[in-house]
Amino acid sequence: MRGWSIPLGRWLGVEIRLHTFFLLLIIICMVINSAAGGWAGFGLWLAIGGAVVVREIARMMVVAWMGIKLRAVLILPIGGFYAYANPESQEKATQGAGQYLLAFAGPVANILTAVALSSALLGASSKFSLFAQPWISSSYLLRSVVWLQAGMGVLHLIPAYPLDAGRLIRTNFSRTQGAASAVRVASGVGQLLSIGAMAVGGIIQNPWLIITGCLVFIGGQIEDQGVFFQSVVDTVRMREVMLTDFSTLSPSDTLVGALARCVHSLQEDFPVVRGPQLVGIVSRQKIVDALRSDGNGYVQSVMSRAFQVARPEDTLGTIIRRISGGRGLSLIPVTDSGKVVGIVSVQNLMSSMSLLAEQRRLERAEGGK
After folding, report:
1. Average pLDDT over the chain, rounded to whole?
2. What whole-number distance in Å separates Cα of residue 318 and Cα of residue 367?
3. pTM of the prediction?
């Protein structure tokens, strides 16, 4: 989710990110509607954003009602993509009645909003023409607002992944083919339909059909990569990526002595052990800050006693959720029979994953000979 997106902060503990295509769409709207003036194009972009807001508010209400916990939301002009905080929440959102509630909440909200707006506008003025062409244009913003709301709702009833109806098809397909295979098939179908929409839009010179096809294509790639990454990390064990060559500190070490150890180590965080027992974690920055503010002391006075440990057989997916679950974890010691046998940190995780991927590729190549 972090690729090509801009953070908008956190709302109720959920990280909200805006895909950069949403900002690029401002320029596209202004160029397409340059004859009506730049500000009119900006108004059309706001109308698109309004349709997304209505959709996501409805979906968030369903998420809260079902007790689903989210970790992050990525906002695209076709709606939001959710990253779930734990497997239980993901199961609630993709299994049973929950998948249908979440799938139809957005389209129903958009269509009802379109009906309400059109009724209000028709009642307020007999001159308001709802069905006049073009339906979406910056020259007729009020009519565009209505049709963008309706269009957003109808769009997600098309069975093209990652649209809502496409998600339902993917979920049902995954029962027999598995999650990863189902996503690849559904994503392929969705991207094929999106390419078709872009081609038709080019032939009939409809820029909105081209933009919609492009957004569905991008969304399908994001979802496909996300599910692939999840399927990989859920098969990788901690023993495969943990650092086994690491330094530890003792709670009785002085801060000056600990700083000297830091100079000769690439670690940012250190397990603090008393004998074989893990008793805390301390970062080099915490050591430096303590020395600057209070002078020399002991490691036990600045170490954190709030930590979690992993076992060598735990999956990397479980650990990633711990690190990114909002608990401020930057290091997770790996213990076996109470002894620290390795560490996993955000700092080394990506390099370890890339090296592991290369190792597995070579093993497959050797096995194919």
Report:
1. 82
2. 29
3. 0.63
Would you mind telling me the total number of residues written for the chain in this entry? 369
DSSP per residue over 179-246, as a string?
A: HHHHHHHHHHHHHHHHHHHHHHHHHHT-HHHHHHHHHHHHHHHHHHHHHHHHHHHTT-BHHHH-BSS-
pLDDT band at 3 (very low <50, low <70, confident <90, very high): low
Best-predicted range by mean pLDDT among 103-107, 210-214, 239-243? 103-107
Strand partners, 272: 249, 280
Token readout for 54 is 């209505």
Dist CA 327 CA 114 (whole Å)? 41
Question: Rounded CA gap, 268 and 261, in Å?
Answer: 11
DSSP for 342-368, written as a single string: EEEEHHHHHHHHHHHHHHHHHHHHHHH
Q: Which of 45, 11, 170 is nearest to 103 (CA)?
A: 170
Q: For the chain, give the longest Cα–Cα distance.
A: 84
pLDDT value at position 1?
A: 45
Query: Measured between alpha carbons, how far is 122 from 119 in angstroms, rounded to an integer?
Result: 5
For strands 14-19 and 70-76, give the pairing.
parallel
Phi-psi region of 306 (alpha: psi -120 to 50; beta: other; left: phi over 0): beta
What integer is the mean pLDDT of 296-302?
93
